[in-house]
Specification:
By secondary structure, the protein is α/β, with parallel strands linked by helices. Strands 1, 2, 3, 4, 5, 6, 7, 8, 9 and 10 form a 10-stranded parallel sheet that branches. Helix 11 links the parallel strand 8 and strand 9. The protein is globular, with a radius of gyration of 19 Å. About 2% of the residues have low confidence.
Length: 320
């Protein structure tokens, strides 16, 4: 029996892969890696495919210098900017997604964190959504404190999203206006008030495969069970506008090793999926992806929900 087969059996039995083992198996035969990841997915992860959707509820003029982001005020990008959306527009989007049998809906805002005034307003919006829909509510509102997070939870938000973005060793190369530790504090506070956590990252920002493995282990350490995997869509005007696209094997290898490291998590298709062909998307779903953000994303085009549902069914997953 090969080493990767032994590791696969160990994970299915409830054991874990080590960091050194993960670094070793990504260098081996890709077909074997993908097949073993698919086996782990089938044995350990949910076969109920989780769909969520997001609404850009406040856009642009962000004080942070994240090098990948079109919404940063540090860069000249061609995006629309606007203040916080109102209750009725938020409900329109939530209801639209609910009618398409999407499980979760999140408001997402630009900026390091919302002001106390905006927190009060968005909590009123969530209370309104909770009273007028049954879709599960999530939020992605920046680096909030525990008091703000408690108010959101009281207003009906069950899950908080805060991406780590990249590995601890790479974060300072991509953002200098806040730290990854700031993000981790927000995650910990959100969990303390009773929320589930969604946190992942972006690949294709110049990081190594070892740094992707480092990120996957950090997410495991934090016990994150919903992990968005974004593939960078270089945006004109940002420092990463000239980054080369990842090839399909790099994307699939990343999905596979994330599954080895986080066998029970929902690995979630997120930004950049539109750059993959349907064959690659289906292969990623067989290897380990069992959830997705669907519809339009923040500043890039997302996916068509009905096409996604057909693909999900073809890959053998169930929908809630």
């Amino acid at each position: 029996m090969s080493n990767i087969d032994q590791i696969t059996k160990r994970i299915i039995a409830g054991g874990e892969i080590t960091c050194d083992e993960a670094k070793e198996i990504v260098k081996g035969d890709k077909i074997t890696l993908y097949n073993c990841a698919a086996t782990i997915t089938k044995q350990c992860a949910s076969n109920v495919f989780d769909l969520c959707s997001i609404m850009n509820a406040k856009s642009g003029k962000c004080s942070e210098d994240c090098k990948w982001c079109a919404q940063s005020a540090h860069y000249k990008t061609d995006i629309e900017t606007y203040p916080l959306k109102d209750n009725k527009e938020s409900l329109f989007h939530a209801a639209y997604n609910e009618k398409q049998s999407i499980n979760r809906f999140s408001l997402v805002t630009s900026g390091k964190k919302l002001s106390k005034k905006d927190i009060k307003s968005i909590c009123e919006t969530y209370t309104y959504l909770k009273s007028n829909s049954t879709i599960k509510l999530c939020a992605s509102l920046g680096l909030l404190d525990k008091e703000d997070l408690q108010n959101l939870y009281n207003a009906g938000v069950g899950r908080y999203h805060c991406n780590l973005e990249t590995s601890p060793s790479n974060f300072e190369n991509l953002c200098t206006t806040h730290s990854q530790e700031d993000k981790i504090n927000t995650i910990k506070w959100a969990r303390e008030v009773g929320m589930e956590i969604c946190s992942g990252g972006i690949i294709g920002m110049g990081e190594t495969m070892e740094q992707r493995i480092e990120l996957a282990f950090k997410l495991k350490e934090l016990n994150i069970l919903s992990i968005p995997i974004n593939v960078l869509s270089p945006i004109k005007g940002t420092p990463l506008e000239n980054m080369s696209s990842l090839n399909q094997d790099e994307i699939l290898t990343t999905v596979a090793i994330f599954r080895f490291i986080n066998p029970k998590a929902f690995l979630r298709f997120a930004g950049g999926r539109s750059n993959m062909d349907s064959k690659t998307q289906m292969k990623a779903m067989m290897i380990g992806v069992n959830s997705a953000i669907v519809g339009d994303l923040l500043t890039t085009i997302g996916s068509k929900v009905e096409e996604d549902k057909k693909m999900i069914d073809k890959c053998g997953y169930k929908l809630i």
